[in-house]
Amino acid sequence: MAASVLRRSSRLAAAAARAEPVASSLKPKNESVCFSKKAGSVSKKVKESNDFHEPISSPPDSQEAVVSTVESELARELGLNRGKLLKKMPSRDMEAELWDMGFQRVAGVDEAGRGPLAGPVVAAACIIPSSVIIEGIDDSKKINEAKREELYNVITSTPGVSYAVHVVDAAIIDEINILQATMQAMTACVQKLSRETKGLLVPDFILVDGNRLPENFPENSRSVVKGDAICHVIAAASILAKVTRDRIMLSYDLKWPEYGFKTHKGYGTSVHMSALLKYGPCDIHRRSFAPLKDQGCCAAEEYTREKPSDDQFLPDAGSNTSKRKTRRRGI
User: Fold this and answer.
1) How open is the CA angle 278-248-115, to the nearest 5 degrees?
2) At 205, phi and psi to the nearest 5?
3) How many other β-carbons are positioned within 10 Å of the β-carbon of residue 286?
4) Could you tell me where this protein is found in the cell (predicted)?
5) What range does the domain containing 182 cover?
6) Could you give the 3-state DSSP secondary structure of residue 214?
7) Same structural domain for residues 125 and 261?
8) Is residue 207, in this structure, part of any structural domain at all?
9) Is 111 labeled as ligand-binding?
10) Within this chain, do residues 144 and 253 fall inside the same structural domain, yes or no?
């Protein structure tokens, strides 16, 4: 197929070399043209100025135009769109800039689970040294579940990588609201990363996904809007947070299969909403979220019993992060 396109490009180039200037078919700009315009059964002659006509460009007669035409035809032959030929992946440019400034342990922080009607919010912090290369890391929302699991395993098993994860359950979300719960999760995972890495990779600069930083965060920190789509280390943290939360929701699906947590992970899909109408909320639903709040559901304190422990889903960082677990209410 590529050979046929190259042959066609040769013919196009030869034709362009032989092509003679083509006279414009337009009338001079100051002239007028007449055409018939029918209104009902009456035909009228209407005069219209050519001032509004744009000139027709001459056929391409340069080598650049021929090459552009060949490239377009090649793209069509291959069924590709030029804009999709190169996929923009999160880069290490932001980290490299900080490395040049003397910050060598740059941590990325992201969360998963702010929007669902059920389940916890999970935050992760991750440091990937400049000497470590992990291919394929992308925003967790842009890759499928199998690829996320694969990258999670690679990130958590690569020597030199340091990370920590923190879970805040639905009961606490209802008590302090989802924004504060997210900030709490981010703060906690950074604190874990700092104290549980045995001093090897304590972060000296932190990049946080979003448009705000948690209160009392370290001075050397910066929020990055859409950071999981543009910053490599934030994207890695997004994968750790997303996979951890998904695993928790899969465990909840075993206990409450009627809600379909396995498929929608607690988000307000039509299947989930139908289950809520039929069965009402279960222990892990967020009572402070609409439409549950509008139904006058019981207080958060009343549904913190007999839930699977989320600690079993926190990543084991091996030599980089200890297995120390903190007490969290309800989980």
Assistant:
1) 65
2) -155, 145
3) 25
4) Cytoplasm
5) 93-313
6) coil
7) yes
8) yes
9) yes
10) yes
CB-based burial label for 34 (10 Å; 0-12, 13-18, 19+): exposed
Q: Is 209 annotated as contributing to ligand binding?
A: yes
Residue 295 is part of a domain; what is its CATH number? 3.30.420.10
Whole-angstrom Cα distance, residue 80 to residue 270? 34
Could you give the angle at the alpha carbon of 237 between the alpha carbons of 218 and 124, nearest 5°? 60
Note the pTM of the prediction, 2 decimals: 0.66
User: Does one domain contain both 118 and 7?
Assistant: no
What's the rounded Cα separation, in Å, for the pair 198 and 203? 12
Strand partners, 211: none
Q: Are 277 and 146 in contact (CB under 8 A)?
A: no
The stretch 74-89 carries a mean pLDDT of: 55
For residue 322, is it within any domain?
Answer: no
- pLDDT mean over 82-90: 64
44: which strand partners?
Answer: 37
Quick check: is 325 in a domain?
no
Is 253 one of the annotated binding-site residues?
Answer: no
Say how many domains are in the chain: 2
Whole-number Cα distances in Å, 83 to 71, 73, 87, 88, 141: 13, 15, 8, 10, 20
Residues, the chain: 331
CA distance linking residue 162 with residue 257, whole number of Å = 35
How many C-beta neighbours within 10 Å does residue 217 have? 18
**Cβ burial 153-169 (10 Å sphere, 16+ → b, else e):** ebbbeeeebbbbbbbbb
For residues 308 and 215, state if they share a domain. yes
213-220: average pLDDT: 92
Contact 220, 204 (CB under 8 A): yes
